[in-house]
From TrEMBL:
Keywords per UniProt: ATP-binding, Cell membrane, Membrane, Nucleotide-binding, Transport
Listed name of the protein: ABC transporter ATP-binding protein
Record flagged with keyword Membrane: yes
Intracellular or extracellular location(s): Cell inner membrane
Taxonomic superkingdom: Bacteria
Length: 576
C-alpha cells in the first residue's frame, strides 16, 4: 500500500548558512492512511521543525529544507513532492490535505476578530459555507470540543477566553477543514486532563470515521500511549528510535528513550504522595481564605450589566506554613482567578483573604506558567532579580548582590548568569530564574500557576525536586495550580478540586486521589493519561460544562458538605 506520507532523509537548517545550522538531520519515516505517528522528544529535538516542514510552514520561520524529499499522496491518487512544490500548490494542500493544530493558541488566533468570524472563515475556505450555514457549523464544532455557552462564545475575542478555551478553538478550526492528515503540535498542553481525554477521544473518533491520519507531537509519552500506532523518538535533530508503540514502551532500545520513560511522572492514584509534613492544626494558617467570591460583569443593559460571570463562588481554604495545597480543575473553573485574588490582582466581590501570621506580612510571590513572558527581555538577570527588592524599598548594595548569588546557587544556576539576558537561557533555566526572583523578598507563600506545565519531562522533574528542596529549606508554603494530576501527586500535601467556580472536594492528597468522592473528581482521576492505561479507550462525553454566566442578583444555594474521614471534605451534589 502506498503511504499517505513518505519522508526521506529530511534535513532542515536555519540562518544564513542553512547546512551549517541544521536542526533536522536526515529524518525518514512513512505514514499510512488512518495511521497515527507520535513524534516524541524534548525542546530543541527538532520534532516541531519536522512537522512544520511537511506543509512547508517552516519557510516562514527562517528555515529551509536543504535536502531530502516529502512525498504526499493526494486525494486523487497523485503524488506531490512538497519540497519542490510552488507556493500556489502549497496553498491548495494546507488545511484541506494537511491540517495543523499549533501549540500556542494566543499567537495563532487573530486578536482583532471574534472566535465566530475565525471559525466561519475556516468553513468558508475549506467547504464554501457562508452565512447561517457557516454559523451552524461553527456552533456544532465548538460543541464537539466541549466549549460551554457556544452560542455566546462565538462573539468573544481570543483574549476573553482562558488558555485552554483558546486551544479548543484552535482544534475546532483545524477540524473544520476535515483534513486527510492532521498535524497536532502539543495540542493539549494547556488543557486539563478531562478535556484532554475528551479531545484525544474526539481525535480518535474522527480518525475512525474519516480515515484521517495524524502526526502527534508531544513530550508526554503517556498521552500518546493509547492513540499512537507508532512512535518516533527524536534527539538533537535525529530520529534515534522508531517502532510500534508497544515495542517502544515495553522494550526501548535507545538510552535516550529509556531516559524519557524514566522521567515521565506516572500517576499512581495516591501511592506516590509525599510522606513528609504532617498537618498541625494547632498552628495558625499562613493563608486563610473565607467565602471568596469573584465576579466579572458581562453585557450592558439600560441600568447596568446584563449579568455576571461567577468565576469564583464561595471558595474557602487554609494553607499551613511549609505546606503545599494544590488546586486542580478544568480550564476556566476559577483556579487561576482564586490565585490572582490572593495576590490582589483580581478584586473580590466579597470574602476574606488573610495572608501571613503574627508579625510576618511578607508579600506573597508568584511564579507564572510562561517564564519567557514573565521576564523583561531588555533587562539582564541582575536587574531582574533586583527589581522586586528595590520596589520593596531595599537598596542595591552588596547585601542584595549576595542574596542574588545565594539564590542562583540554590536554583542551580552559575553566578555569572547575572550578566546574561533571558533569551540566553533554556526554558527550564528561565523558570529557575523566575523561582529565584520570587524568593528575593524571602516570602512565606509562593503561588505557582502552572509553573512546570510548559517544561520538558526531565526538566520538569528537576524543577519539582528543586521546589521540594526549597520548601524544606525555607519553610515555604506553596499554592500550586495545575492540571497535571501526576505532577500534583508528587508535590501536594493537600488537594482542592474546583469545578465551575466552586471547590467540590478538599483534603489530604492521598485521601482525595485514592478515594475520590465527588463525581467530577472521579472523572478527573479516570481521565489521567498513563503508559499503564494505554489500552483504556475514552468515550466522547458531550455533557456540557455548566455556564458561569448568571443573571443580576443571582446567589447560589448554600453549600452542604460531607466529611469523608479526617481531613477529607466533599461538597454534596445537587439532585437533578
Amino acid at each position: 500500500m502506498t503511504p499517505l506520507l513518505s519522508v526521506r532523509d529530511l534535513r532542515v537548517g536555519f540562518g544564513r548558512d542553512h547546512k551549517a545550522n541544521e536542526v533536522v538531520k536526515g529524518v525518514s519515516f512513512d505514514l499510512n492512511a488512518g495511521e497515527t505517528l507520535a513524534i516524541v522528544g524534548e525542546s530543541g529535538s527538532g520534532k516541531s521543525v519536522t512537522a512544520l516542514s511537511i506543509n512547508r510552514l517552516v519557510d516562514f520561520g527562517g528555515g529551509r529544507i536543504t535536502s531530502g524529499s516529502i512525498k504526499l499522496t493526494r486525494s486523487d491518487g497523485s503524488s506531490l513532492d512538497v519540497v519542490r512544490a510552488n507556493e500556489r500548490t502549497l496553498l491548495g494542500i494546507r488545511g484541506r490535505d494537511v491540517g495543523m493544530i499549533f501549540q500556542e493558541p494566543m499567537t495563532s488566533l487573530n486578536p482583532v476578530h471574534t472566535i465566530g468570524a475565525q471559525i466561519s472563515e475556516a468553513f468558508r475556505l475549506s467547504k464554501g459555507l457562508t452565512g447561517a450555514a457557516a454559523h451552524r457549523a461553527s456552533l456544532e464544532v465548538l460543541g464537539r470540543v466541549r466549549i460551554p455557552d457556544a452560542k455566546s462564545r462565538l462573539d468573544y475575542y481570543p483574549h476573553q477566553l482562558s488558555g485552554g478555551m483558546r486551544q479548543r478553538v484552535m482544534i475546532a478550526m483545524a477540524l473544520a477543514s476535515s483534513p486527510r492528515l492532521l498535524i497536532a503540535d502539543e495540542p493539549t498542553t494547556a488543557l486539563d486532563v478531562t478535556v484532554q481525554a475528551q479531545i484525544m477521544a474526539l481525535l480518535a473518533e474522527l480518525r475512525a470515521e474519516t480515515g484521517m491520519s495524524m502526526i502527534f507531537i508531544t513530550h508526554d509519552i503517556g498521552l500518546v500511549a493509547g492513540i499512537a500506532d507508532r512512535i518516533m523518538v527524536m534527539q538533537n535533530g535525529v530520529a534515534v528510535e522508531q517502532n510500534d508503540t508497544g515495542a517502544v514502551l515495553d522494550d526501548p532500545q535507545h538510552e535516550y528513550t529509556r531516559h524519557l520513560l524514566r522521567a515521565v511522572p506516572h500517576f499512581t492514584s495516591g501511592k506516590a504522595v509525599r510522606s513528609d509534613g504532617t498537618r498541625q492544626e494547632t498552628i495558625d494558617p499562613i493563608v486563610k481564605v473565607d467565602d471568596l467570591v469573584v465576579r466579572f460583569p458581562v453585557g450592558r443593559a439600560w441600568f447596568g450589566p446584563k449579568g455576571a460571570i461567577h468565576a469564583v463562588d464561595g471558595v474557602s481554604f487554609d494553607l499551613m506554613p511549609g505546606e503545599t495545597l494544590a488546586i486542580v480543575g478544568e480550564s476556566g473553573c476559577g483556579k487561576s482567578t482564586t490565585a490572582r485574588a490572593l495576590l490582589n490582582l483580581n478584586t473580590p466581590h466579597r470574602g476574606q483573604i488573610q495572608a501571613g501570621s503574627g508579625h510576618s506580612r511578607r508579600p506573597v510571590q508568584m511564579v507564572f506558567q510562561d517564564p519567557f513572558a514573565s521576564l523583561n527581555p531588555r533587562l539582564d538577570v541582575e536587574a531582574l532579580l533586583a527589581e522586586p527588592a528595590i520596589a520593596n524599598g531595599q537598596r542595591p548594595d552588596a547585601d542584595l548582590r549576595e542574596r542574588m548569588h545565594f539564590l542562583l546557587d540554590r536554583v542551580g544556576l552559575p553566578r555569572d548568569a547575572l550578566t546574561r539576558y533571558p533569551h540566553q537561557f533554556s526554558g527550564g533555566q528561565r523558570q529557575r530564574l523566575c523561582i529565584a526572583r520570587a524568593l528575593m523578598l524571602n516570602p512565606d507563600v509562593v503561588v505557582l500557576d502552572e509553573a512546570v506545565s510548559a517544561l520538558d519531562v526531565s526538566v520538569q522533574a528537576r524543577v519539582l525536586e528543586l521546589l521540594v528542596d526549597l520548601q524544606r529549606e525555607f519553610g515555604l508554603a506553596y499554592l500550586f495550580i495545575s492540571h497535571d494530576m501526576a505532577v500534583v501527586e508528587r508535590i501536594a500535601h493537600r488537594i482542592a478540586v474546583m469545578f465551575a467556580g466552586q471547590i467540590v472536594e478538599i483534603g489530604d492528597a492521598r485521601a482525595v486521589l485514592a478515594d475520590p468522592q465527588h463525581s467530577y473528581t472521579k472523572r478527573l482521576i479516570a481521565a489521567v493519561p498513563a503508559i499503564e492505561r494505554r489500552k483504556q479507550h475514552f468515550a466522547v462525553d458531550m455533557t456540557q460544562v455548566p455556564s458561569l454566566v448568571r443573571p443580576p442578583g443571582y446567589e447560589p444555594p448554600p453549600a452542604l458538605w460531607h466529611d469523608n474521614g479526617q481531613d477529607h471534605r466533599v461538597r454534596l451534589e445537587e439532585t437533578p
